[in-house]
């Protein structure tokens, strides 16, 4: 076979491959995206989103984490294309501390935070000097303090918004003793405390039931802690990320949330 003939065949083969690729159905030309999520309940939801996205021609690789602090770090260093685990106060605190250029691109769900107890049945039953656990990160710690203030357990200084700290407690009539712990550790620490404010994902992972094991729950209406899909600044309009958001905000996901979590996790879109 001459060199000319071989070149002709190769050229024709390449051209045919190009034509075939252009005419393949969308499912065969799937684009991909890598998304960070928290392991447990949030990963369960994301698995449903992944199936919806696949029907739209998008392959989603889920990367589960067990530590909140690592997810934005991974997105920032481009190990992820997006993440779906956080609310605005948490992202704002992370940006202030670490300078991330990360932005929200679409709401997912809201998980009302709860005050859990295995020792008392109501807020009124909390004893003087009660030991209460709260998350040790600024956004979730502030969220916990606002819940306790809404229940009259403490009073906060005026104007502290969503990020109060223990230094912002103006009144503490029960002389509550606070234990600041990593959010994921609170379910395990609960037996040693009178109560603890626990994020819903960690509560579910710890076998707690928001309907049965709480003595107070955050309001759902107008809740500022709605979670969202986040991406690096400049990637907001990437087609893959838009498709992922659309897949999250789908009837299939809303139905799954209702049937699986029965009010513990509710749509925020």
From TrEMBL:
It comes from the Bacteria. It is found in: Membrane. The keyword Nucleus does not apply. One of its GO terms (molecular function) is dioxygenase activity. Gene3D superfamilies: Periplasmic binding protein-like II (3.40.190.10). Pfam families: Lipoprotein_9. This is Lipoprotein.
């Amino acid at each position: 076979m001459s060199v000319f003939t071989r070149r002709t065949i190769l050229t024709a083969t390449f051209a045919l491959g190009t034509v075939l690729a252009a005419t393949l159905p969308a499912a065969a030309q799937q684009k991909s995206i890598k998304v960070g999520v928290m392991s447990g309940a949030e990963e369960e939801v994301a698995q449903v989103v992944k199936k919806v996205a696949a029907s739209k021609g998008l392959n989603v690789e889920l990367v589960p984490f067990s530590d909140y602090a690592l997810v934005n770090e991974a997105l920032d260093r481009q190990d992820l294309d997006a993440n779906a685990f956080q609310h605005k106060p948490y992202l704002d605190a992370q940006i202030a501390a670490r300078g991330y250029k990360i932005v929200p691109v679409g709401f997912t769900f809201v998980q009302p935070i709860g005050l859990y107890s295995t020792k008392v049945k109501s807020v009124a039953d909390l004893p003087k000097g009660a030991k209460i656990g709260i998350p040790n990160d600024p956004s979730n710690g502030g969220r916990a303090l606002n819940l306790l203030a809404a229940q009259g357990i403490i009073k906060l200084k005026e104007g502290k918004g969503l990020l109060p700290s223990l230094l912002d407690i103006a009144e503490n009539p029960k002389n509550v003793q606070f234990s600041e712990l990593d959010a994921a550790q609170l379910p395990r620490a609960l037996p040693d405390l009178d109560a603890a404010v626990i994020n819903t994902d960690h509560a579910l992972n710890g076998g707690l039931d928001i309907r049965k094991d709480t003595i107070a729950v955050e309001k759902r209406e107008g809740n500022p802690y709605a979670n969202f899909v986040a991406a690096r600044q400049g990637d907001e309009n990437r087609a893959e990320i838009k498709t992922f958001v659309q897949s999250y905000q789908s009837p299939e996901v809303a139905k799954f949330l209702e049937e699986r979590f029965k009010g513990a996790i509710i749509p925020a879109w």
